[in-house]
Amino acid sequence: MKKGNNLTNSSRIIIKEAEKHGITWKIIPGTEIISLTYKGQEKSYHHQVPSSCTALAHYICRNKKITNNLLQQAGINAPKSYHINQDSDKKYLRDIFEKLKKPLVVKPLSGTWGENITLDLNSFDKYLEAIRLAFAYSRGKKTGAVIEEMFTGEEYRILATREKVIGVVKRIPANVIGDGKNNIKQLIKIKNQEDIRGEKGSNRSHLKIRIDKKLKEYLEEQKLDLENIPKKGKRVFLRKVSNISQGGDAIDFTDQIHSSVKEIAIKAIRTIPGLSFAGIDFMSTDVSKKQNKDSYVIIEINDSPGFDIHDYPYEGKNRHAAREFLYLLFPELERVK
What we know:
By secondary structure, the chain is α+β, with helices and mostly antiparallel strands. The chain is about 30% helix and about 25% strand. Helix 1 crosses helix 10. The radius of gyration is 21 Å and the shape is globular. The model has no long low-confidence stretch (mean pLDDT about 90).
């Protein structure tokens, strides 16, 4: 049986790891659900969501505002935020804008891949434009957006179960480093040829950098354009968002984090009933130090985290996340390793 083209790269890695452990697998016909069988036991998953994840956990993670509410009630830092929908009038939007500390972030209520997110908003007009972009992500009647205060710090993705942290990567926004000869457009082309990068849906852990309107606008903010030739060794950032799906780099940071970061991550995943495996978007001023109420926030929790960036980071160690995923489904595997 061929590994389906519609499977995520992380799902393909799970299948490959399963075969190493003598686990048989099949794609349930007409679905993208993978069924795994080991010593007579059958477990399944879909896009990195194990069958142990409940519908309630899925609902909570898909609604960023509800996730924030649960985190805050548990005493975990999350950005101050508001949920709006297409019926929200301009006065309400103005009230939110005035009430929140700038700069602001606007993002789709249930978005993924870092799509349609706008950061660093200070003007009301740009804020309204960002809201329209967030609504465009999902055009259904119940589409919504989250407006939140922006936290200044470094961004990390923490992969965890309810019992342990599997890996931590620092996410760096799409960037190129000057060589003193090539312009930014040429440097992007060169970086996109790296073996680790591919198109969406490919078997690569990092995606290629897309040249689009937002990228050009961010260069303009830096008084740059695609024809500029950066000095040798100068790093030029191309986006504000750090998502690997937007061309960013994942740097393994698991060994550099303070134990308090792990404690917060485990507490966060346990805050969501029925969530057994997750990717936690964590921001901190310094992850190597003990965290306090002013040093970190949790931006969101993803119940379907792509973990190929932990097995194949841009820099750093392979954290064998696919193997850990199988240990979650079949705990006896870990006992015989």
